[in-house]
Amino acid sequence: MTGVEADRGALALCAAVLCAGAAVWLLAKRDRELRRARLLFVGGAPVASAAPVAPDPARRAAEVAAGVRERWRVRYGGRMGRELLCLPAGGVVALLGASVLPLLFAVAAVPVMGRWLRRRERGRVRERRAAGVIELCSAVAGELRAGRQPGEALLAVSPSDLGERWGLVAAAARFGGDVPEALRRAARAPGAEGLTGVAACWQVAVDEGAGLAAGLDRVAAALRAERDQREDLHAKLAGPRATAMALAGLPLVGLILGSALGADPLHVLLHTPAGLGCLVLGGLLEWAGLFWTGRLVRSALASSGAVADER
């Protein structure tokens, strides 16, 4: 009993340290945003304090955590955020099961969850850029029909979803540069591939005097049709995807029901050889099922020409 109590005490201490670290990390981000807001509201000048304030250990720890977070972002290009919630969840399961294995699994799950969240974010950015290209075509065509010149019509539109490369396009239109080449460069951003059609229309209009507004309307119509086809395919694949996720969550439901019936499944899984074998085998089967489902979805998207970057 003494050994079990010592193990539980060590697990409680470890879980508390992890929770405190995650809280400091998130508070560091909030503190940095507040400092940025203060600087913006006072016009860039530092806020003068009325009296010298004694150093706060919590603030110092938050600044250290913010520095570590910034170095992580610069060196590895990653952002730590919601994936850190795996650590407290793993700590809770470790306390309930009196084993360090769930905590180790949670630590290993942090980078995997981070990659998944970043992939979802890239998919959302890609969709926003695609929608921005469609709005750009319609807006520029409207400006041309209102009597503006092509360069003026392009400068009158300021899309916010096309990223930093749109500044090159605006500069080329403002100072008489190569607008089609700037549009092709901006089209290299994920989701902005439709700008290649805009560049082609611009080139034809400049070289042969064709109507640019009509060409932009056709590009916008083609991009809308492609977006509708992609959304229809995502809707058709939502059913199999939801079924796979529901099947993947059934083992968790079984653990909850077993605990409610007093069977103590966590003890069996984490403290007996047969339970550990079942845990490893079940985890491998779960991973294989999710991997295979994702592969089927990606192959369906690729065969139809839709975007393969999953949400």
TrEMBL record:
Keywords, in A-Z order: Cell membrane, Membrane, Transmembrane, Transmembrane helix
Record field: transmembrane: 6-27, 89-114, 242-262, 274-293
Record membrane topology: Multi-pass membrane protein
Compartments in which it is found: Cell membrane
Record-linked Pfam families: T2SSF
Domain (Type II secretion system protein GspF) ranges: 137-256
Predominant subcellular localization, coarse grouping: membrane
Domain of life assignment: Bacteria
PANTHER family: CONSERVED TRANSMEMBRANE PROTEIN-RELATED (PTHR35007:SF4), INTEGRAL MEMBRANE PROTEIN-RELATED (PTHR35007)
UniProt-recorded name of the protein: Type II secretion system F family protein
Species in which this protein is naturally found: Streptomyces coffeae
